[in-house]
Each structure stands twice: as structure tokens, then as C-alpha cells.
Design goal:
Elements: E1 13-14, E2 19-20, E3 24-26, H1 33-36, H2 39-51, E4 56-62, H3 80-95, E5 99-104, E6 117-118, E7 132-133, H4 136-155, E8 160-165, H5 170-175, H6 190-193, H7 195-208, E9 213-221, H8 230-243, E10 247-252, H9 272-276, E11 287-288, H10 295-303, E12 309-312, H11 315-318, H12 322-327, H13 345-348, E13 378-382, H14 386-397, E14 401-406, H15 415-418, H16 426-440, E15 444-447, E16 461-464, E17 468-470, E18 483-485, H17 486-490, E19 499-503, H18 507-516, H19 527-534, E20 559-563, H20 579-588, E21 592-594, E22 597-603, E23 606-611, E24 619-622, E25 625-628, E26 632-634, H21 637-644, E27 650-651, H22 663-676
Helix pairs in contact: 2-3, 4-7, 7-8, 14-22
The structure holds NADP nicotinamide-adenine-dinucleotide phosphate and iron/sulfur cluster (SF4).
Iron/sulfur cluster (SF4) binds next to helix 11.
Length: about 675
């Protein structure tokens, strides 16, 4: 192991009664798989990650009882049948030489149910249901149910449990005076408020014996008003250790916090400093987490002494073989998690099964398989954007011979625009990964080449992935010198004035606003400035880690107005878990959002609009530059020419359906097509 680039990451961790083979924990994610009750499928998901070398997996949160479930019907180990079903999963993980712990998640007032319970009847801002205040017996029942959940986990073959004490869930709610107004022995002083989490750990340890892993997930920085101080965090950590925890894991921010904690614009390893503050103050291993997505980042965190182990969750959706590839010196082959949330958390919060934008096989292991082809074909793919590259990669993996054309001189298509947007730097790594993998899979790349029909004769299959072109909004005066397309802006080719109107408040309108409201380096690369921008402070100095002066955003170099015709809230169709961040970020930069407009004309004075059906209340938005971000239409001239020539082609990605195209749909469609050829 001495010749590895990741000596800290790959070092084993001796827990006394058992040893973890490296320092990587796959953090808990609610995938929705357990709720499908398709246990072989659940087992396939976890076993593939165990085969990929991760030392310890934590499952998605399992409810200890009905009232503690995140939503009605949330999975848990309630019956012997449930225990037998989970055994299918733990057996598969053990066969793959892995270890797995079950997370016990009591949601408290975050439960999306009128039956939810909590320390006090204080409704959460992210739930419509006020919790029922528990009495003494009610609290005892919750403890008992968590203990039974841990015992059942042991019966089901789990190597341990993770007790979820962070993110503002039930146990966390007892710690903070804002949610705990009790005056009995479970409220009041900090000692009383921390009684419940400590008692749960103590009784779980008593029930499961000494040789069973108990991870306690502790909120190290709450990021909510009245949140814990660092001294309280240390006091709790030490008490939880004394009560029998084996490992402490880090939680960052309550779900209701208005500071991003895992989004792509959060600096990499952006919260490891918080965990580091606990190092040396407890005797058990400490895990850090949040925005650690590559082995070099993880190695740095450990080498800097921020923690004993790292937790990564979403990176294991993007690539099940993360650890194995790192250990084999193939880190450049790891499919990067770009922290977009588009196919994971956004799915979870829409009640859909989790997957991954980068890896559509995630949680679909049994159904989407990339088997070697029995009849290798010659396949031409036109367009090296997300859809075309994904199709090329999967086809080549299956043994097909692939020629990939693109008229531009680089691969990546629209992904190359995304990577220019401050806070979206992870797209750089994604395009690089595609380029690396296409080279390894010996895809014949013909860049700077727009093939004609004649060039595509003689292939067994032709795939058209020619993407999209900007929609023409047909506004009077749009050909003027003060009007630009988003393509020119994001390519950095155009001079943009100080006062800007952006036509279209979709994903690209927001991206352009973000791009134009920043100057200097991206905050994602500067953690100090990022913390200042969002108002994050040291919890040792300020309760909850909130800066008393609040967010201090760097001012925008431009006055920006973002417009749309629809009357709905701008950005409503952005990602469910990230839209609020984009809106908050632009608001902090003073970007004005105007809805329900009709575009009348553009002239040297700026953009003329009107409102309402009668259009009798015209207004001038005086700007120097107007940027068109009015969506896209399909680019399928090649597909039409092929059809005319009688050649059947598969049309994928934006060339298939342009409306609301994103990389998730493009990669999924390209991969699925190539899996079937
Ligand atoms: P989009 O999301 O479809 O938005 C197009 C915008 O143009 C809308 O605001 C629409 O609003 C406006 N529009 C449509 N037709 C128009 C017309 N004829 N004249 C004037 N305005 C018109 O498209 P996009 O912004 O180009 O984004 C493309 C895709 O990439 C989307 O799926 C998007 O989600 C994805 N993307 C996402 C992100 C992100 O999540 N952060 C970032 C970039 C791209 P009105 O019709 O109300 O005027
Ligand atoms: Fe990461 Fe995005 Fe995949 Fe989620 S969907 S795992 S955030 S790349």
C-alpha cells in the first residue's frame, strides 16, 4: 500500500472487535429502493458498491416506528418478514466482502405526516404538520422502538447501525431550544436536552452487545438560529462516546437551513474544518463529510488531520467502483459526482427512485445492464455532447466499434457552457472524464468533422445526437448590436454592458445571470469568501455557525433584470433541491426578477415590455445589453437528411426532444439506447 497516492484513505481502521479495510464510508442515502420491496434489486445496489471496495456502507434511513418515518409508509424493520428481507441485502454485501450498517432515522417534526412527534409542538418551516409533543411515556416509547430497530438490524445481519442525530431530525430537535421548549428532564439545561440522544446510544449499546458498530451522526454545525455551539457539540460527542458509540459521523446543517451544504457551488471539502475541530477531543474515530467527491480530496482531508475517515454518499451513485479504481491507480476513470442533485435528491423529494445523472445504472443495476454484445457492430454517432458521448461509451464498453463525430474541435457539447458558470466547475471534471474514458475505450473520435449522409453509409447503426439550437424568440429589434445570445456570453466572446436584461428565466437564464453577476474568481474555489457570502461562521464563536452580520455577498458588477412571460415564480422549474440556492444567490446579487411580461421591442434605449393581456402599460427596461436565453429547439437537419436518404437512424438527446433538455435525460437516453444495440 506504500506506493499508493492515497496512503491515508486506503489504510485500514481497527475498531477493536472488527477492522474496516479502508477509511471510506458510503454515507446514507434515501434511494427509495427499500420501498420497492424488490429485495434482490436492493441487494444488487449495495453489493455492487461493496465489490467496488468501500469499507462500510450505511443504508438509507429506516424508520424505527410509524410516527418516526420520513413519510407514511417509510421502510423499517417492523416484522420478522422485514428482517428476512434485509438479510438478503446483508448476505449479498458480505459475499462481496463488504460491511453494512443500517441507519435508524427518526424524523421527528420533519416527518411528512399529521402523526409526527417532537419535543415540543413547534412546526418546521419545511413541513405542513406541527408535531405532537411527547410526554414521558411517549419519549420512552421512541427510545424503545429505536432499540428494537437496532436489535432487528443485528438479527438481519447488519454489521452495525447508524443513529441519525443530525440534519435537524428527531434527536437533533431535542438539543436546540428553538425546537425543545420542555421544562422536564428532557428539556431546559443542555445536559437535559442532550439526555435523549445519549440515552438512545446507551440503551442501544446495552441491547446489541459490544461487538456491533454504533455510528452516531452528530450535527457539528446546525446552521440554524439558536443552533448548538461548538462546546455543546464536544460535550455531546464525549457523552455519546461514553454511552458506547464506536464512531462519530458528521452532519452539516439542518434541512431547514438556508445555507447550501452539499450543492455543487459549495467548495470541495468545504466543511471538513468543522469536523477537524472535534479531533483530539474524543477517543473514537471521527468521520467527516460533505462535498468530498474524489480520492485526492478525500486523501487531503485525512492527511490534514480533519478526520479519521471520510463519508461520501453521492459519489457512490456516480461510480460504485470508486475505491477500487483509486487503489488500482485508475482515479481518472472514476465517474465524478458533480453534486447536481438532479437524479438523486431531486428524485427523492419528488417521490421517484434515486439514480444518477452521470450513471443511469445507479439503483437500476438489475434492469439496465451493459452486457458484452454477441454481435459487435460498427456504430456511427454524430454529436459529442452528453447524449452522444454516453451512447459511445456504453456501446464501446459492450464491444461495439464506435466512430464519434462532432463538428466542433472539442467533446462535451453544451456541458462546455455549463462549466463556465461560477459554481459549476464540477462540469470540467465531467467532460474530462468522458474524454479519458472515450480514449480508453478506443472510440474513434473525429472532431472538427460534420459528417454528411455519404459519410454515414456502411455503418450498422447510426445515432444522431446533434443537440439543439437557440430558439428564435422573434422580438422586434433582436438583431441589434446590443443583443447577444447566451452562447456568445458563456463563450466569453462578447462584451456585455453594465446594465443587462436577460430574456428567459429557465436554467440557462439563471446560469447567465449567475455568470454576469460575478467578477473575479468563483467562490467555489475560495472557501473563505464562500463562507462570507453565505454567512457561515465558526460555531465556537457563534451559535449554530451563523455569522451575526448575516450573508455578506460580493456585489455584482452589473445591474441585471431576469425576465419571463409566465406569471409563475422564476426558477420554479429548476431542481427541487437546488432551485432555492440559485434564487437566493441571485437575490443576494441584487438581480431583479420580472414575470408576466410581453416583449414589445428592443432598441438603443433597451428592452420595451408590457404587462397583461391588454398590453396597454408599456415600460422601458433601460439596459445596455439584452441576452436571449429563450430556450432551444431541436437540431435535426442531419436526421431529416438521413430519413430522406432512406437510412434509419436513432435520434437521441436534444435532437430528439429539445424542451427542457438536460444532461440527465441525455445521458440516460444515450446509455439505454447503447445498452440495447
Ligand atoms: P428552459 O428551461 O426551457 O427555459 C426557457 C426560458 O425561455 C423560459 O424562461 C421561457 O419562459 C422562455 N421562453 C420560451 N419561449 C420563449 C419565447 N418564444 N420568447 C421569449 N422567451 C421564451 O430552457 P433553457 O433555459 O434554455 O434551459 C435548457 C435546459 O437546460 C432546461 O432543461 C434546463 O432545466 C437545463 N438547465 C438547467 C440548469 C439548472 O438547473 N441550473 C442550468 C442550465 C440548464 P417564458 O415562456 O415564461 O417566457
Ligand atoms: Fe452526484 Fe448528480 Fe449523480 Fe446525484 S445525480 S449522484 S449529485 S452526479
Amino acid at each position: 500500500m506504500t506506493d499508493t497516492a492515497y496512503p491515508h484513505l486506503l489504510a485500514p481502521l481497527d475498531l477493536g472487535f472488527t477492522t474496516l479495510k479502508n477509511r471510506v464510508l458510503m454515507g446514507s442515502m434515501h434511494t427509495g429502493l427499500e420501498e420497492t420491496k424488490d429485495w434482490p434489486r436492493v441487494a444488487a445496489f449495495y453489493a455492487e458498491r461493496a465489490r467496488g471496495g468501500v469499507a462500510l456502507i450505511v443504508t438509507g434511513g429506516m424508520a424505527p416506528n410509524k410516527e418516526g418515518g420520513v413519510f407514511p409508509g417509510a421502510a423499517g424493520l417492523f416484522t420478522d418478514r422485514d428482517v428476512a428481507n434485509h438479510k438478503v441485502v446483508t448476505d449479498a454485501v458480505h459475499e462481496a466482502d463488504g460491511k453494512i450498517a443500517m441507519q435508524i432515522l427518526h424524523a421527528g417534526r420533519y416527518a411528512y405526516s399529521p402523526d409526527c412527534v417532537g419535543p415540543s409542538p413547534v412546526k418546521s418551516p419545511i413541513s405542513p404538520f406541527p408535531p405532537r409533543e411527547l410526554d414521558e411515556d411517549g419519549i420512552e416509547k421512541q427510545i424503545g422502538d429505536m432499540v428494537v430497530a437496532a436489535q432487528r438490524a443485528r438479527q438481519a445481519g447488519y454489521d452495525g447501525v447508524e443513529i441519525m442525530g443530525s440534519e435537524g431530525y428527531f434527536l437533533n430537535q431535542f438539543l436546540v431550544t428553538h425546537t425543545n421548549k420542555r421544562t422536564d428532564r428532557w428539556g431546559g439545561s443542555y445536559e437535559n436536552r442532550m439526555r435523549l440522544p445519549v440515552e438512545v446510544v446507551r440503551r442501544v449499546r446495552q441491547a446489541v452487545g459490544d461487538d456491533f458498530i454504533i455510528i452516531y451522526r452528530l450535527s457539528m454545525i446546525d446552521l440554524v438560529p439558536g443552533g448548538s455551539t461548538h462546546d455543546e457539540v464536544v460535550q455531546l460527542a464525549q457523552a455519546v462516546e461514553a454511552a458506547g458509540a464506536t464512531i462519530l459521523n458528521t452532519g452539516i446543517g439542518w434541512h431547514e437551513a438556508r445555507i447550501p451544504t452539499i450543492a455543487t457551488s459549495v467548495p470541495r471539502k468545504g466543511f471538513a474544518w468543522v469536523t477537524k475541530k472535534l479531533m483530539g477531543k474524543v477517543g473514537i474515530p471521527v468521520i467527516t463529510s460533505n462535498r468530498i467527491n474524489m480520492p485526492d480530496v478525500a486523501e487531503e482531508v485525512l492527511a490534514e488531520g480533519c478526520a479519521d475517515m471520510v463519508s461520501m454518499a453521492r459519489p457512490f451513485l456516480a461510480d460504485a467502483h470508486f475505491v477500487q479504481k483509486a487503489a488500482e491507480g485508475r482515479a481518472d476513470e472514476i465517474a465524478p459526482c458533480i453534486a447536481c442533485n438532479q437524479a438523486c435528491l431531486d428524485h427523492t423529494f419528488s417521490g421517484k427512485l434515486t439514480s444518477c445523472l452521470v450513471n443511469p445504472r445507479a439503483c437500476h443495476e438489475t434492469e439496465l445492464r451493459y452486457e458484452p454484445s454477441s454481435t459487435p457492430k460498427r456504430i456511427a454517432i454524430v454529436g459529442a455532447g452528453a447524449a452522444g458521448m454516453a451512447a459511445a461509451m456504453v456501446a464501446a464498453e459492450r464491444g461495439h466499434r464506435v466512430v464519434l463525430f462532432d463538428k466542433s474541435g472539442q467533446v462535451g457539447g453544451q456541458l462546455n457552457m455549463a462549466k463556465e458558470v461560477p459554481g459549476k466547475e464540477e462540469f470540467v471534471g465531467l467532460v474530462d472524464w468522458f474524454a479519458t474514458m472515450m480514449a480508453r475505450r478506443q472510440i474513434d473520435l473525429r472532431l472538427g468533422h460534420a459528417p454528411e449522409v455519404a459519410d454515414l453509409l456502411g455503418f450498422d447503426e447510426v445515432i444522431v445526437a446533434t443537440g439543439v439550437r437557440p430558439r428564435d424568440p422573434g422580438i422586434k429589434g433582436q438583431d441589434g448590436p446590443n443583443v447577444l445570445s447566451y452562447i456568445d456570453v458563456l463563450a466569453g466572446k462578447a462584451q456585455v454592458g453594465r446594465r443587462v436584461a436577460i430574456i428567459g428565466a429557465g436554467g440557462i437564464g439563471f446560469d447567465v445571470a449567475e455568470y454576469l453577476s460575478h467578477d473575479g474568481e468563483s467562490l467555489t474555489g475560495n472557501p473563505d469568501l464562500w463562507r462570507k457570502e453565505w454567512g457561515v461562521a465558526d460555531p465556537q464563536a457563534h451559535r449554530g455557525g451563523l455569522a451575526p452580520e448575516g450573508p455578506q455577498p460580493h456585489p455584482s458588477p452589473r445591474e441585471i433584470v431576469l425576465l419571463q412571460r409566465k406569471a409563475e415564480k422564476p426558477g420554479k422549474r429548476l431542481g427541487k433541491t437546488t432551485g432555492w440556492i440559485h434564487r437566493a444567490s441571485l437575490k443576494m446579487k441584487g438581480v431583479k426578477m420580472v414575470t408576466g411580461v410581453t416583449y414589445e421591442k428592443i432598441d438603443a434605449d433597451g428592452l420595451h415590455v408590457s404587462f397583461g393581456e391588454s398590453r396597454d402599460n408599456p415600460a422601458l427596461i433601460a439596459v445596455d445589453t439584452v441576452v436571449l436565453c429563450a430556450g432551444q429547439v431541436v437540431e435535426r437537419s442531419l436526421a431529416d437528411q438521413l430519413a430522406e436518404a432512406g437510412i434509419t437512424a436513432h435520434v437521441i438527446g436534444g435532437a430528439d426532444v429539445a424542451a427542457e433538455l438536460d444532461a440527465k435525460r441525455a445521458i440516460d437516453q444515450g446509455s439505454r439506447l447503447a445498452a440495447a444495440l
